[in-house]
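agent> Task received from the user: take the single chain below, predict its 3D structure, and emit structure tokens. No templates, no multimer pairing.
agent> Plan: (1) validate residues, (2) run structure prediction, (3) serialize to tokens, (4) report one or two observations.
agent> Step 1 OK, no nonstandard residues flagged.
tool_call: predict_structure(input=
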Amino acid sequence: MALFSGRDSEPAENPINSLREFIFPVFKAKIPADKLKTMPRSDVAKEAKAAVSVFISEHKLDVNLLDQRELVTFLVNKLLETDEQQKAAAKDSGDAEKSPSIPFSIAAKISDIITDTASTPKAASAAMASLASKIAPDTASVVLSGGASVEAAKFKLQPMVLERIDTSAAAKMEREDLSHDLTGIVNELLLETRTQLNGIERQELVRQLLDDMLGLGPLEPLLNDETISEIMVNGPKQVYVEHQGKLMLSDVKFRDNAHVLSVASRIVTAIGRRIDESTPLCDARLMDGSRVNIIIPPLAIDGPSITIRKFSKKKITLDAMLKFGSISQEMAMLLRVAGRCRLNILISGGTGSGKTTLLNALSQMIDHGERIVTIEDAAELQLQQPHVVRLETRPANLEGHGEITMRDLLKNALRMRPDRIIVGETRGGEAIDMLQAMNTGHDGSLSTVHANRPREALMRLENMVGLGGVNLAPRAIRQQIASAIDMIIQVSRMRDGSRRVTHISEVIGMEGEVIAMQDLFTAEVTGELPDGRLAVTFKNHGLRPHCLPKAAYYGLDKQLLEAVT
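)
tool_result: status=success, residues=565
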């Protein structure tokens, strides 16, 4: 299996994994059970941090801050296990017993091992195993229990599991059926190898094995967490997530770079692409539509990097954006009218500002009787209409042939009798083809572009037309843009993590050599609320919309005037 490819030898066990079980009895003795029932988690964490600091100081251990934090997390989680969980574990394992206390002298010996062999992990692991063999059998089992034991057991048992199952058949099984079969195999192997895990740990071991066989391994819990919107893997030991607009370090880790590369390969292989030294970067998507970017060595110096923009299972509408405070009531009405009266709209914003989310929301205003063609590098749009044709670019093959670009797809889309063309993102020479499509009867087309302000979006569009190899005078390019684009919507991710529409601007034509624009709505930050969120005011400039005649053609002029006055 790919998970074990490229491995020369088994990694040495981290001595910290054994050390934490020796600290736990000392820490537990400091907090009586009756006091623990009334203590908040934050107070327990403070006690754990103090206990770890004292232990490390007394025994002169060389433990970095990251390992210290992991020790504190382990102590808190283990101490706060409920009686119900312990009873369930006893019932599932059948022979679960209370962990015996460990003499503090043994902990001192372990601290000496870590200090003396800190520079040689293999020597530390060998010394730890030798010490464990001298401890009474019931005490030695404690060294292998706890959260780290699941990782150790997984590393030990996974090759044995793969020997006993048909991996090709397992890949076709439903997760529930495979879980049932895998549980039996794992229980047999635990008995054969005399590895002691309680019921909860056995369930966790089976879940991790299933995630590796059917899913994306360590990333599966993050993908299933609805509160996480983005996942950023910066090598095997550093996985960040975006939670409610804020970046934070998760506790998810991979074994090594080969493990990260294995997961990356599984992602791209599923959609017929590849990632290797000859093609070290790739845009892809998951089966649920989540967007993925992968870059590996030699381009990524510190190891493979995976960035996942998660597909939201909740459909974001203009009403939802209004509820979140991303737009005002008048702006929502204006955007509804703009979508229904077939304005050509360009959505501008920075990375992660919500451009695609807004595009999806606007697309819900499209009539179900229209034929829509979408063009994307990695398909992620969530259109609800029944008549949608989704097109996706294709990279070159190993011989460097067969590449299909955005320009190729745009030219082909014009022969498919579309009512509207939606380009996921305009970033190169395809800009000229998009403008020509908008100018040749495909009103109501939508696209996104990376820019910080509406005026900059027009400048970027002008520069991208030049990349298309079209020899046009600057004024001719601007005339093309002015006649094609009706409205620019600027979105921004603000410093409090929220995403808001900051400008709704109209393109009203040419004034000399310059494209003329007018702002219908803008957003202004007026302060900061006590909870840290920004106070934002949406300003209606009260201007007469340039698109009023087109809105009148569709019978929406009254609604448009109500929105802007």
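agent> Step 4: summary for the user.
The first strand starts at residue 228 and ends at 234.
agent> Done.
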